[in-house]
Amino acid sequence: MREFELVIIGGGPAGMAAAVAARKQGIGNIVIFERGDELGGILNQCIHNGFGLHTFKEELTGPEYAERYSDQVKELGIPVELGTMVLDLNADKELSIISRTRGAETVKAKAVILAMGCRERPRGALGIAGFRPQGIYTAGTAQKLVNCEGVVPGKEVVILGSGDIGLIMARRMTLEGAKVKAVVELMPYSSGLKRNIVQCLDDYGIPLMLSHTVVDIKGKEKLEGVTVAAVDEKNTPIPGTEEYFPCDTLLLSCGLIPENELSKTAGVELSPLTNGPSVDESLETNIEGVFACGNVLHVHDLVDFVSEEANRAGENAAEYIKGKPASPGVPVEVKPGFGVRYTVPSKLYIESVNDSVHIRFRVTGVFKGAAIAVTSGGEEIFRKRGRIFVPSEMQDIVIKKDKLADVSGTIEVKVEEAAK
Ligand SMILES: Cc1cc2nc3c(=O)[nH]c(=O)nc-3n(C[C@H](O)[C@H](O)[C@H](O)COP(=O)(O)OP(=O)(O)OC[C@H]3O[C@@H](n4cnc5c(N)ncnc54)[C@H](O)[C@@H]3O)c2cc1C
After folding, report:
1. Which domain covers residue 268, as residue numbers?
2. 220 DSSP 8-state letter
């Protein structure tokens, strides 16, 4: 059985950054298993620019951003096994893998980094009435068809969901000559970044219909059109508000789901709030030596934050491999309070925090002129004011270790609204 010090599952931006960080910490025996034919993950199909502003202070395309890391993987001589799918992982860190060149094999690792990314929520998970005609795609599938295969899936398009992929595809389909009739969003706010609403919808005159949804799909063999209706505050369609849009293509951009099938078989505890592993401050799961980072842990807005997080996962895995003792004591629970959907990490071993700890989360709604407050036992340990907090932007706060000195029990992260 081949044995590795560190196995990284997934060669997207998270997997590559984690591998680079671990190698720079002196770990020699690393491998990246990637099921695709090249490194880069989802970035390979994102040919628009806007990547890397934080990391490289430049606006790169997805493939350019990926190349910055794949070059480092190559320069550092980190072995990559492409076309290699990890089929199973157990709590002893044994992995079943399969590849075209080596066939089926079991390998063993001292530490594992989960970096499998996420997948899009498909139509079956949305419960829309109507037949299953040709012409309905997730936005990411359409993106791959257009950008990688050179195939434009349709001419008249409606997009359901205003996540970033949907917004990017509204512009992309327009540039390919299609007519995008509307982007329809159930919530009263967009789940995509403001810059994407401006650059991908407003600049092309594409209407964004907030508090609306698709209630019917017409067409049996091929899509003929969709019926859109307004929804009330309980997201129930309002009778009499229906509007019919003839179209041959419906793109779905209704959320991403972290890919945690392998985590589950290994016995990794998952958070019901993120659908990703529950981790501590070192991004370690409940299984010693198994770490997680990137979109498999929680869905990120910007790839720069994926790389930064993966860098920490790689460094922490390296320390584990070099024999750093397990975190001492009982962890402090990190809880989402008012206005906060989840936190990563969900627990902290305070003694193991180096200088500071990152807490990442998303808010549950749009909060203007509000503050983020972090408290423990009624005492405030952190506060940050903001002009506006929106669910589409991941929040990242950094708390210094000295602020955590007197903390015990739980830490609560909440939004405090401005007085009206
Ligand atoms: C359409 C779209 C547009 C975006 N636009 C922007 C933008 O403008 N700016 C920005 O900063 N960010 C953007 N992002 C976000 C950014 O691309 C992601 O945050 C980032 O790619 C996540 O990295 P990851 O490594 O966690 O996951 P991924 O990139 O998904 O990589 C995961 C990798 O794991 C592999 N894998 C999964 N399971 C297995 C297995 N069992 N065995 C072997 N390999 C496996 C997959 O093949 C994949 O290569 C966009 C994302 C999308 C989808």
Report:
1. 1-120+255-326
2. S
